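Write out the 3D structure for:
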Amino acid sequence: MDSGLLRFLELVKRELKGIDARMEVGGFPPNDDRCVWTSVPGTSGRLVLVLEQPPKNRRTVERRLANLASGFADTIERGWEASVGRPTAPSSARARLDAELTSPASRAGADRAVVFDTSSPMIWGASIIEGRDREPANRDLETWVEEMRSERADELRTAHGHVVRLPVGSDMECLARMFGGLYVLALTFRGSLSEPVAVGALLHSADAIERLVLALPPVDPPPGGKVIRLPRRKG
């Protein structure tokens, strides 16, 4: 079974004080009074928690189990599909990340929202821009990400996960936050920047974005490649 899914099941046991936690597929749900279960969106399975004794308040435990399943949905989906032999399509996973990044960019009034890492030329996801502006916007994004990676990585590391405000190029500013010791979530602005609004939008979306990034399949850069460009959308 996928290691991420196994770690999640251990988390369920620890948080809900169970003696076992497992994923099941097919058949009838468990009828043991000590078992609490919930269906898991994005999979064909159910998450089952086994307690030492029947719970005194079953609905409360069911709600907490469902909340855990919802909060770690991408980890479960990726682990489940890998375990049953149907790996998550990278294009689908990245499309979800791009869509999630579009929300804080819109709320903050930012030009773009992006996730990149400091150890490779990979841009993991970026807020969606449609129409004829897409190609020049993506080229600009690649330019300023490379500047951030080459000139601002030390400042991001020493911020220890806090949001920092940095100049980029001659006419832009950036709000950025490092997570996972490697990845950077950033918003970029050419016009006016309301820091309280923008920081709030970034932090509000951070957990969901981080889960999506950590659930992405790995991508190796091409041999000798210096830049991995953003995918070109059809239409």
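The CA atoms of residues 11 and 21 lie 9 Å apart.
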